[in-house]
TrEMBL record:
InterPro entries: AAA+_ATPase (IPR003593), ATPase_AAA_core (IPR003959), P-loop_NTPase (IPR027417)
MF GO annotations: ATP binding; ATP hydrolysis activity
Domain of life from the UniProt record: Eukaryota
Protein name as it appears in the record: AAA+ ATPase domain-containing protein
Domain (AAA+ ATPase) ranges: 22-147
Source organism of the structure: Trichoderma harzianum CBS 226.95
PANTHER family: AAA+ ATPASE DOMAIN-CONTAINING PROTEIN (PTHR46411:SF2), FAMILY ATPASE, PUTATIVE-RELATED (PTHR46411)
């Protein structure tokens, strides 16, 4: 992923159509609290750009409001040279069908905007829904995050406890068997951190 991000700003590749296909689009899928937002933060850090985070709900639910919202989002991201994190992008990625014309219009608007976006855009989804096939050619990288297993939860517990202890604000004294017990609880990374 580092190579993709670093090469994005230096790439001389150009599409046959002016200003088309110059963006870097990533899709991160998985349950809450497994590292999707952290990955987007890392991408912004690698690119040395600010991260602009927005939820799909903030763009609206009608085609006209979604189009205006995307236009504003893309203008701001371009002006700030920001990496954009569009959280809960399922709404825009869903496969078009013959029954929901409003959803089809929103998906079409999103596809058009992706085609001409020139920055770095990270999409996240908590669901493995059936995505519209047209997105496959527009997504440059896809990462699927599994649920955290016991070993990963143990690592997170250790890490967050060490950080808390290092801050000097909290005394952390947890025996190894207690840590093992904590790791057995099916918590996600956000829940462990809190």
């Amino acid at each position: 992923m580092r190579a993709l991000v670093e090469s994005h700003s230096t790439s001389g590749f150009d599409d046959f159509v002016r200003d088309k296909g110059k963006g870097l689009i990533g899709l991160l899928a998985g349950p809450p609290g497994v590292g999707k937002t952290l990955t987007a933060e890392a991408v912004a850090e690698i690119a040395r750009r600010p991260l602009y985070m927005i939820s799909s709900g903030e763009l609206g639910s009608e085609p006209e409001s979604v189009q205006r919202g995307f236009d504003t989002l893309m203008e701001l991201a371009e002006a700030w040279h920001a990496v954009v994190l569009l959280d809960e992008a399922d709404v825009f990625l869903v496969e078009r069908d013959d029954t929901n014309l409003v959803r089809n219009a929103i998906t079409s608007i999103f596809l058009r905007r992706l085609e001409y976006y020139q920055g770095i855009l990270i999409l996240t989804t908590n669901r493995h829904a059936s995505f519209d096939p047209a997105f496959k050619s527009r997504i440059h990288f896809y990462l699927d995050y599994p649920d955290l297993d016991v070993d990963k939860r143990r690592i997170l517990w250790r890490s967050f406890m060490a950080r808390s202890a290092a801050s000097g604000k909290v005394t952390v004294d947890v025996a190894e068997h207690e840590l093992e017990g904590l790791a057995e609880f099916p918590l996600n990374g956000r829940q462990i951190k809190n």
